[in-house]
Amino acid sequence: MPKIKTFFSIVASGAGELSGCDSTAEVEMQRTEGEGKMIPTWLVQFGSITGLLAFCVTIWDRLLSARPLIWISPGDYGRQVHFKNLATCDITISAISCYPSSIGVASSQSLNATVRASAGQGFMAILKADQEREFPLIFRRGELLDEDCKDIAPFVMIVSWRRNSSYWLPQIPKVIFSSAKAMRELKSAK
Asked: pLDDT 10s per residue in the chain (190 long)?
């Protein structure tokens, strides 16, 4: 085994110890058994790929799987926003935001719920596993739904939701792009 030569000097802390003497020494060091050997490259790559796969499965399980289905369709009393929970646990719909604010979603078809939605007040709803619910879509400008109206009037609906099994973990909101023109076509399709 090759010997490694190392030189070091001792630094004195006091002025009295400074005598000008050379205080260097030669020390022989030997490597210990197994020192300096590396992990095989294939094992490092295998561990990296395994860690990446575990990360992808976690992201899929926590953020992308079992998202609720949300769509707009004609209903008995106008247009309905349908929610279907595909998860095996309950989910909470914490907020439904519509832009522009002339569109809203009511919690039910009652007069009180319709007035609250028209005033811009939101609601929360819980959907059990495999449950489906409908909420009325409210237009504050009713002339947009008239058959002779030619305005496109696009709108965006953002649905914030959480799983009840891990309520602390925010989920990616569902976004729906539509327009008053599409809602008029839904009415004629029924």
From this structure: 555 555 555 554 544 455 555 555 555 555 556 566 788 899 999 999 999 999 999 888 877 788 899 999 887 777 899 999 998 889 999 999 999 988 999 998 889 998 998 888 889 999 999 999 999 998 888 888 888 888 888 999 999 999 988 888 888 899 999 998 888 888 776 5
Q: Where are the domains of the chain?
A: 69-189
State the sign of the Cα–Cα–Cα–Cα dihedral 119, 104, 106, 143: positive
Topology (CATH level 3) of domain 69-189: Immunoglobulin-like (2.60.40)
Say if residues 170 and 147 touch (Cβ distance below 8 Å). no
Q: How many residues in the chain?
A: 190
pTM of the model: 0.68
Backbone φ and ψ of 127, nearest 5°: -110, 125
Dihedral Cα 132, 134, 135, 139, nearest 10 deg: 140
